[in-house]
Write a structure and sequence with these properties.
This protein is of the alpha/beta class and 312 residues long. It contains twelve helices and eight strands.
Amino acid sequence: MDFKKVVVAGSGVLGSQIAIQTAYKGFDVTVWLRSEDSIGRAKPKLERFKNIYLKTLEEMKTNPKAYCRGLTNKQDLTDDEIDQLKENLIKGYENMTLTTSYEEAGKDADLIIEAIAEDPKQKIAFYEELAKYLPEKTVIVTNSSTLLPSQFAEYTGRAEKYLALHFANTIWKNNTGEIMGHAGTDQKYYDMVVEFAEAIGMIPLKLKKEQPAYILNSLLVPLLSAAEALWANEVADVETIDLTWKIATGAPLGPFQILDVVGLVTAYNIGIMDPRATEKDSIQGKITAALKKKIDAGETGINAGKGFYNYE
């Protein structure tokens, strides 16, 4: 693997984290965004995650519990070593490029990480336009939470160099990278993505075949869906549902706290893919309508300062 220039398409909850993590680990990072307005919205997200990294690294000097696997694989760092990591982060952050240009993003790109909305039409349009500007060498991965790479491979113009690399939220702590190819993925490029995941501090989780929702979301989405159903059916309020889960299982976060981290837009986009979501009286219809109401009010999750909980 000889990746140098890495392009992250999208700056949502995970896109921003992926960009910061990749820049922190020394890669030349370009963030592609749809519009100048998107760039304006991306900058405070990127700055927020930069500050989280800096704060966490500083805390590691005095608090062993602050250690995060994605930041370093060495737990007993000296203060000078930690300061060097902080310098690496600042340098990577300052050297990042934000652009709306497909041509600028594609030029000499080694790896494209697609992290745009969970909307097949948007993804297809992105891949078809991007294909016009990519050199032959470029590998493309999708960070899609629920969609399969085989759905989009033909639109990339390089099916053999296309696969999935899915991250978990708070990737500096929960440093997993689920790697999933499709029937046409060349093993050579699969292995390159495994090596890249390791290079940015992730633990590669190798899937042997395509699976909707991969490993993590095959486990997580049913939990979140069940919590949403309890809420939409007015069985219990958000706080009570979260409290039940945390006390009974020892989990640090309840399902609605997790949804705030994931982002309500992502949850909504996943929900509307269910055909029953258009049925007003169905539980799926109630969930998507309730999520849409919160999204329209600007309550999209932790990055917005408010979701199911207030973070301001």
